[in-house]
Structure to design on (687 residues):
């Protein structure tokens, strides 16, 4: 039996979300404060020891709570709900248990659901208690709103309860049947066990209040999962005789776990071996106190736990926790829960990139080995991993990713403001459209494979960004941070993912970015070519010139340079896609009474024309020995040099970054960045 999907309503920023859960691991990703932790916290509240607080209600529901304090109308009082849908095998023993626990099934024999609801138990009593604490006087509102009253003392817990419902999925609705509270609680714990490897693991070498020594973790694992000395008197004899005997006892008991830990890749070949030695006094024998030493076998030199890095400890600690939770689940003697899920929060803490990339594989090595050691091969939990690590995401199957996107509350205006809600997008549901450019077609499956490979190779950070900027090449990517800095844009405070994809591939990302609802800016080249023949490269001012840029033709549905130049800012913006496309525009050069319009077909040309005065004075160089005095000839010289093989685009970009001279960013890039700035931060206040 496994969890198939969960639905969460009115919990923090998770106003109304639904996400599927994979059979093995599911990875929650997204920017900071996008709701990943909230998606695990709701399980803590309903199935763990954490108590609900008034601030766990969504922002949009707080006004409903306060309104009840004003008028006593309980109809609009909100509740926090968690629906869990399980997938079962009708032929298995678990079906019999689930059928007994959920008797209101119809013809749906492969899916059962349970709802937990946290809400006000007796609204009338709450209203009376609140009115007594803050009586209204002379038609005035009470001194404090109801939400403040519920935040005080234990007022919330006094007036709330958790209700349970069995769920049936009909053709167009879900039927919820309320269960007796004790029956519902028993049902829930019979179906599901939930464990957490916390993000704040506080692995330290000091015995502080919140510190977790590895030796303490090993001792706890020993107490709960391994064979101990059978009686205090026997332990007393062992300790009094020689701690060596008990050290050998630990070595035998921990051999399996130590082998698993070695499989994690640490210690490496050149690192010290691990050994657990007994340092027990007779009084502490049954409490399993141990010290963890790092041993150099060659020199017989032992170092205490404090002498190893936090990343090493973090990895071992997570392995111990995962195996402990799994073993405890498998060893449940009576009514073992049919399903087990482990939430692992931010496993990347203190781990270097290579270990992060192998984390998913390593944790499954631990769990599979644990199942074999318990005689339950193949019986493993589901994992949900929340992460900010692009390295973990890089090693995760595309379809197992759940992207958390910050969005407006339902009913809010679409203008820029605080994003108080969340949407969850499952990449398993993503299917790009087939792409046809210049008569060449990439099928839906080919388009999907391209995106998977590209993201895995270079741009997993896309899932943690506020917006994406798709650029033509390395030069643009190198100079973009400097351009943002030069324009003093508010984008400096935004998290931007810059994807170097070339003009032929920007349109391939369109469906993915639209699916994820990530705003994006396309900064691409005009790539002018002649209309006749095999379309040789030409200057942008060539009459009847076309663009060879596949992204411009696909995203803007325009093929000629003249048509592109006539596009307005509104036409470059696509509201449905939440995108903006920008490319080289015309620059009017004036010199010695002469005037000429120049337009670059590439980024480097555009910089040259935008900084023509600096180019003329020698403050800026593109590698030309001499710039002709005539503007027309200068235009041709710049164009010919930049498109020649001897011109090195990356060297040019690096020269701009390293040089001490000022330069002006191309106008078309500033145009695109201004759109993105307003999109993310709103229009600048006037006056």
């Amino acid at each position: 039996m496994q969890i198939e999907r969960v639905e969460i309503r009115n919990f923090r920023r998770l106003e109304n979300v639904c996400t599927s859960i994979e059979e093995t691991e599911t990875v929650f990703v997204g920017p900071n404060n996008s709701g990943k932790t909230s998606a695990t916290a709701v399980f803590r509240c309903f199935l763990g020891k954490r108590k609900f607080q008034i601030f766990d209600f969504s922002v949009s529901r707080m006004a409903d709570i306060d309104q009840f304090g004003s008028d006593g109308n309980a109809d609009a009082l909100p509740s926090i709900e968690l629906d869990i849908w399980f997938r079962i095998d009708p032929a298995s023993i678990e079906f019999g248990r689930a059928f007994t626990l959920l008797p209101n099934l119809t013809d749906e024999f492969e899916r059962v659901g349970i709802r937990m609801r946290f809400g006000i138990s007796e609204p009338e009593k709450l209203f009376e208690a609140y009115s007594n604490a803050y009586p209204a006087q002379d038609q005035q509102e009470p001194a404090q709103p109801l939400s403040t009253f519920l935040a005080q003392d234990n007022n919330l817990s006094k007036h709330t309860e958790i209700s349970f419902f069995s769920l049936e999925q009909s053709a167009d609705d879900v039927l919820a049947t309320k269960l007796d509270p004790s029956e519902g609680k028993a049902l829930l714990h019979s179906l599901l066990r939930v464990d957490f490897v916390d993000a704040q693991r506080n692995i330290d070498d000091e015995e502080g209040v919140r510190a977790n020594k590895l030796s303490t973790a090993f001792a706890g694992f020993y107490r709960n999962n391994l064979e101990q000395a059978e009686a205090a008197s026997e332990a007393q004899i062992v300790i009094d005789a020689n701690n060596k005997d008990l050290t050998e006892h630990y070595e035998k008991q921990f051999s399996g776990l130590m082998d698993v830990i070695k499989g994690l890749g640490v210690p490496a070949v050149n690192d010290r071996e691990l050994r657990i030695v007994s340092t027990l006094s007779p009084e502490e024998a049954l409490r399993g106190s141990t010290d963890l030493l790092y041993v150099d076998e060659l020199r017989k030199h032992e170092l205490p736990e404090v002498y190893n890095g936090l990343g090493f400890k973090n990895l071992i600690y997570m392995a111990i926790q995962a195996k402990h939770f799994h073993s405890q689940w498998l060893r449940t003697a009576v009514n073992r829960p049919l399903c087990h899920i482990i939430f692992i929060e931010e496993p990347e803490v203190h781990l270097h990139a290579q270990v992060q990339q192998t984390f998913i594989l390593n944790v499954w090595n631990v769990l599979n080995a644990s199942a074999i050691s318990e005689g339950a091969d193949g019986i493993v939990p589901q994992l949900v991993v929340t992460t900010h690590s692009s390295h973990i995401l890089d090693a995760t199957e595309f379809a197992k990713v759940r992207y958390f996107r910050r969005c407006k509350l339902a009913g809010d205006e679409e203008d820029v403001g605080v994003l108080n809600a969340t949407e969850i997008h499952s990449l398993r549901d993503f299917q790009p459209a087939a792409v046809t450019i210049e008569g060449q077609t990439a099928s839906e499956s080919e388009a999907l494979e391209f995106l998977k490979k590209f993201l895995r190779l270079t741009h997993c950070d896309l899932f943690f960004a506020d917006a994406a900027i798709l650029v033509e090449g390395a030069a643009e990517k190198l100079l973009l941070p400097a351009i943002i800095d030069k324009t003093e844009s508010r984008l400096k405070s935004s998290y931007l993912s810059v994807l170097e994809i070339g003009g032929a591939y920007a349109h391939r990302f369109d469906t993915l970015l639209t699916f994820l609802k990530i705003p994006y800016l396309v900064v691409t080249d005009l790539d002018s070519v002649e209309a006749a023949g095999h379309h040789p490269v030409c200057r942008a001012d060539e009459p009847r010139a076309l663009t060879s840029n596949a992204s411009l033709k696909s995203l803007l549905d325009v093929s000629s340079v003249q048509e592109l130049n006539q596009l307005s800012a509104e036409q470059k913006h696509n509201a449905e896609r939440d995108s903006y496309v920008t490319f080289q525009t015309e620059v009017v050069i004036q010199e010695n009474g002469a005037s000429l319009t120049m337009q670059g077909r590439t980024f480097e040309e555009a910089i040259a024309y935008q900084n023509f005065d600096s180019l003329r004075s020698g403050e800026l160089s593109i590698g030309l020995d001499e710039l002709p005095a005539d503007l027309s000839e200068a235009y041709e010289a710049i164009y010919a040099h930049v498109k020649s093989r001897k011109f090195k685009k990356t060297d040019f970009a690096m020269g701009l970054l390293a040089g001490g001279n000022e330069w002006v960013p191309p106008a078309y890039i500033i145009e695109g960045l201004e759109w993105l700035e307003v999109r993310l931060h709103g229009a600048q206040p006037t006056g």
Q: What stands out?
A: The chain has 26 helices and 26 strands. The first strand starts at residue 2 and ends at 11.
